[in-house]
Structure formats: structure tokens, C-alpha cells
Amino acid sequence: MTDHVTIYEMAPRDGLQDEKQPVAAADKVKLVNLLSTTGLKKIEVTSFVDPKWVPQMADAAEVMTGIDRTEGITYAALTPNLRGFTRAIEAKADEVAIFASASEGFSQRNINCSIAESLERFKPVAEAARAAGIPLRGYVSCITDCPYDGPTPPAQVAFVAKALANLGCYEISLGDTLGHGVTETMSKMLDAVFAELPATQLAGHYHDTGGNALSNIALSLDRGVRTFDASTGGVGGCPYAPGATGNVATEAVVALLHAQGFDTGIDPDALAKAATFAKTLRTPQ
How many domains does the chain have? Predict the structure, then answer.
């Protein structure tokens, strides 16, 4: 039986969140609908955050309620607090996610609080998700390097990942937010996290800023990780990580996986059409 790898599609949310020019809700809906034809089973549609911090996501409810849903696909949303969670559920999100940082500097600038405070803030969201029977995913940012604090200690990544798992996150996505991770630093980070959590509970979210995303994915595959976040067309990054734009392109990840004999269930031709459209939504550089 062919080994299956799940791609968690990020283009509609992580891909578009830092665009300086507004992207029309109708275009975001069109992108999600195109992605729904590719064979992807996990699509992060939007983020229910305060528009003051991420203006591009101000239309979250309009987009989430406007998509054409395909059976068998999970349509997810980022929800940093209970208000965001409530709005996401009202908009019929199938899954929600919370996000923490492994570095104090990034935590303060990204969500305006310390790591410890962020974990406390997430408790009500986790409890509400559990009560509603909604799957909860967790993100850890800056797993190897932070734009403010420098190198991230692997033990700190493991601590935050375990804390999110203890809150009830079924899966923890490990984010190389700057795209500076290399084989040596990624290996040390994975060693530390694997001491706390199994590979089956982890996903890789590796930016390609430094051109190392695919090699980091290959390393993680060898270590047993079978879920990876990617953004069709390679669009997007994080507005609070200077110079970090560079999500790895879903089509490049799928090509790598298929070349190595893994099954993704994704149609490269349909994905190429979605990628072509996704790229038209980017602000010209």
C-alpha cells in the first residue's frame, strides 16, 4: 500500500493575509472553490482575527459562508480567541486552529503577549472546541529562528508543542516562519519535539525563503512526518516576520512527494489551474 501524505492547503489564509492591496472576497471564494477540485482534503480558508491587526482577513465570515463545500474536505479557520472561535463556528468552519510562538520576541509582536499568556488565552478556545466537537489544530512559529530573538532553542519548541497538545490540539504544525531552517537545526528541533510527541501528531510548515523547504520536507518524511502545510502558487508569508514571505508552493511539494512514490490524492493539473489563479491575486512587486 502506497504511503499517504496529507497536504494542508494554506493559500487562502496564510497565502493572502499579508497582501497590501485588498483581495476581493469573491476572488478568495473562487480560489477556495478551485482548490476544492484538486483532491486536497484540508483547506485553511481564512482567519477570524481583529481586522485592525490583519486587514486582509476582515471578510472572514463572508468568505467562509460563500464557498462551495465539497464532501470530504475540511474547511478550517484560524481563531486566536473565543470571539474568533464563535464567529468561525457561526460561519460553519469544520476545524479551527490556534497559534503560539516558540520565541518570546515573536509572540509579543505577533499576538501581543508572552508565550505563557498566549497559552492561557487559548484555554477557553480549546474548551469551547472540545464542547462543540470541533477539531482543534495548533501552530508553533519560529521553530528554528526568530527575527527578534535569533536562534530558537529546540527545547522551547518542544515545550510549546507539548503545551498545545495538552490543550487538546490533535495536530501540531511546526512553522519555520523565517525559512532559515537547515538540515542541522531542523534535525535538532525534531529530536526535541519527538521526545514529547509522536510524528503522527505533527505537521511541517516550512517557508522556502532560504530555498530549503523541500529538503526540510524530505528530512521530515524520513523521520515519519506525513502532513505538510503548503500554499498553492507559493503565495504569502507572515506580516509580522520581516523578510519571511516565501510559503512553499503546494505544486512543488506534490511533485516531490509523487516523485518519491508517496500518494497525495491531488491532481497536479487541477492544482496548476488553482496556482495560476492564486498568483493573479498577489500585489505586483
Answer: 1
